[in-house]
Amino acid sequence: MNIEQLGDIIDRYLAGTATDPEKSWVEQWLQQRPEDLQSLAPETQNAVHDRLWQSFAARAGWQSARPARIFPVSSKWLAYAAAVAILIACALWLRPATDHLPVVQTISAQPGSHKKVTLPDSTVAHLFPGATLTIPDDYNTKDRRIALTGRVFFEVKADAARPFQVTSGKIVTKVLGTSFEVMATDSLHAAITVRTGKVGVHFDGRPLAELTPGKRLRLHVQRQDFSIDDVNAAMLCEWWNKGMVFHQEPLEEVVQALSGWYNIPITITNEKWKTEPVTIRLRNLSAGEAVSLLSQTLGFRYKKDRNNIIIY
Description:
Layout: H1 3-15, H2 20-30, H3 42-60, H4 75-93, E1 104-108, E2 115-118, E3 124-127, E4 132-136, E5 144-155, E6 164-168, E7 171-175, E8 179-184, E9 189-196, E10 199-203, E11 206-211, E12 215-220, E13 225-230, H5 233-237, H6 239-242, E14 244-250, H7 251-262, E15 266-268, H8 271-274, E16 277-282, H9 287-298, E17 302-305, E18 308-311
Parallel strand pairs: 5-6, 15-18
Antiparallel strand pairs: 1-4, 2-3, 3-5, 4-5, 5-8, 6-7, 7-10, 8-9, 9-12, 10-11, 12-13, 14-16, 17-18
Helix pairs in contact: 3-4
Protein name: FecR domain-containing protein
InterPro entries: FecR, FecR_C, Ferrdict_sens_TM
Domain Protein FecR C-terminal: 244-311
């Protein structure tokens, strides 16, 4: 695991959007300090997240657009934050020195709300709830490079002189002008869906495929294998207009999308349902109505526990 993946996992854990394997990994890491097994309170999550980000930005020399917030934090969590900040700082320190320290802008869509952003080159990005874009200050000079976590659909302004490139972990997607979606909601799975034009997908420096309209590449990062299938890209990608459409996607990934869209924790306690494939369209439904429809379709049972929904 590289330092970028480590930071992504911790960000998702603190935001409450990590997958079960990622939660297990972080909790195992935390439990290396056996004196502390308590769960994270929301205020502590926010405080640690901000302190991690501030430490990261300060050591990287970046100018953070994220507003600073101050919460009381216990010494043990400051120790955790410091440990991760040191890891990140060491990784940055090991990079070759440059005369120019990059300035970046970070744009996020909060859980429960999506966001539409127009970039300096007139490219339009639709951020699914919980997604984040990182845009360097030299964007649209020699090229157009950005990084993301989460799920974002792009309508890229054509410019043959400045290729458009999206990085998420070890996955790099390159285009000149087209519309496509990148979904990298955790460190284990990713998907790239092309609506128009042509997209080149690379992983860890090697080319995987060139995708044409209606093609979707699904990658299992840990196993480093991928598959390509035919999908209705217009339906899958325009979730802000046409509702959320899923095509043969595991219930675990569907539930993760619903949790972000409705900003409600939804968990699956019965392992057998996690990999159950789902093909369904969910539009103009409440969270309860969406889970009820999934229950009727697949046959699982569920219950509400305060603000949580538990599938079993």
